[in-house]
Amino acid sequence: MADSTTDQAHLISRRRLLGTAGAAGAAGLVAGSAAGAFGDQAVRDRQAPLTGVGSASVAFHGTHQAGIVQPAQAHGHLAAFDLAPGADRKAAAALLRRWSATAAELMAGQAPKGDDTGIALDAGPASLTVTFGFGHGFFDRTGLADKRPTALDPLPAFTGDALDAKRSDGDLWVQIGADDALVAFHALRVLQKQAAGAARVRWQMNGFNRAPGATERPKTARNLMGQMDGTNNPKPTDANFDERVFVPDGHKGADAWMAGGSYAVVRRIRMLLDSWDNLALERQEKVIGRRKSDGAPLSGGTETTPVDLDKVGPDGALAIAGDAHVRVAAPASNQGAAMLRRAFSYHDGFLDDGAPDAGLLFIAWQADPLKGFVPVQRKLDRGDGLSRFLRHESSGLFAVPGGCAEGEYVGQRLLEG
Ligand SMILES: C=CC1=C(C)c2cc3[nH]c(cc4nc(cc5[nH]c(cc1n2)c(C)c5CCC(=O)O)C(CCC(=O)O)=C4C)c(C)c3C=C
Ligand SMILES: [Fe+2]
């Protein structure tokens, strides 16, 4: 797991580097950065050590890439890139090397070399994570088809899909999350500029979650339907967590390079909020199988009480209905199939009929999509009471390699193996 260095003593923010070294020497620490372009004022402004949200950082280097097990941040950007015509394996390797070095700098709160935008100049890393993945087409374009994992075979079509091909798939995928909107956008902009000549943005989506500190104590985030979403996710402390989420070490075969990696299924799921909001609270709760106020299962207890799918109420009916989302999606209903859900909400304005163009950027992480997303979505597609309030509008499946050590880059084992 990538180390989450929230310990204040280990936090390295751009401000702290400058504060410790002193203004004059500090200019050298960010050599090639925007500091020179913004003059003395920016340097003076950055002398006090950062505290709070801005100071938290996540390590870029590690066994797994960051942005999988860490809590989803307040701001997210998802971007898919297609390799430019003529960009080959060498060009792809150079891009991943450049992107990895930049992500490591940004996540440590340092200005990347050559950055002249100044967008995040005053801020610390704000829990920034940058995660890179490869889509199906990447392997053909780089002459690496023999290394493509079978797990990247296209997802089956589902009856409820209304997918927009232009906003689906892609050769490369970047997931960015940060607890500050400018830090998140800055990372996206820097990476997009660095891709010039090698890859072009195919689609891009923006998402959000509640800001840290918005609730009296840390709580499970709510989605735009108002439900607590993420309660029954696999936990890193579960004995089988790694087995479910990450490709095992010592993994053999053409895709041995995926050891320590994970597969991300990305779905832009629009919520039919006008219909949902018109549903009485009791009906809404029945559709999910949990109470809206506190996320407790309708079989009783509190949010964290295990769901009892066999519980029958005084009226003789199942406490959690046959088509309730949590029943249909539960590992117990899917031969143990499970995934780690780490989503962002999105809102892209209003459609012509006045309905919000809003929903969930659903991201499911698993060691094998055929043992995670696919069987569960097949079942939801047929029998989920929630599905009549949802439209799956875009879809992507990406191989997200394991993390890298200092001096290496993400995907090196594939591109140089
Ligand atoms: C294919 C997998 C899933 C899709 C797609 C999906 C979409 C989706 N879900 C919600 C809201 C909730 N989901 C909840 C639980 C839940 N959902 C899935 C899978 C998919 N959801 C699973 C595996 C689970 C856990 C089931 C269990 O073991 O109990 C919940 C309950 C709280 C929780 O446990 O997170 C809510 C609420 C929405 C709104 C949505 C699409 C927009
Ligand atoms: Fe769900």
- Rg computed from alpha carbons, rounded to a whole number of angstroms: 22 Å
Number of strands: 11
- DSSP helical segment count: 12
Average pLDDT number? 90
Question: Roughly how many Å apart are the termini?
Answer: 23 Å
Order of helices and strands: EHHHEEHEHEHEHEHHHEEEHEH
Structure description:
The radius of gyration is 22 Å and the shape is globular. The protein has one domain. It is α+β, with helices and mostly antiparallel strands and 417 residues long. Strands 7, 8, 9, 10 and 11 form a 5-stranded antiparallel sheet that branches. Mean pLDDT is 90; it is low at 1-44. Helix 1 crosses helix 2 and helix 4 runs antiparallel to helix 6 (181-194). It is built from 12 helices and 11 strands. Residues 325, 329 line the site of fe (ii) ion (FE2).
List the helices and strands and how they pair.
Elements: E1 4-5, H1 14-21, H2 23-29, H3 35-45, E2 57-58, E3 75-83, H4 89-107, E4 129-134, H5 136-141, E5 172-178, H6 181-194, E6 199-208, H7 241-245, E7 262-271, H8 273-277, H9 281-288, H10 325-329, E8 340-341, E9 344-350, E10 356-366, H11 373-383, E11 390-400, H12 412-415
Antiparallel strand pairs: 1-2, 3-5, 3-6, 4-5, 7-10, 7-11, 8-10, 9-10
Bound molecules: ligand L6N33NVT and fe (ii) ion (FE2).
Fe (ii) ion binds at residues 325, 329.
Domain Dyp-type peroxidase C-terminal: 220-404
Function: Involved in the recovery of exogenous heme iron. Extracts iron from heme while preserving the protoporphyrin ring intact.
Family: Belongs to the DyP-type peroxidase family.
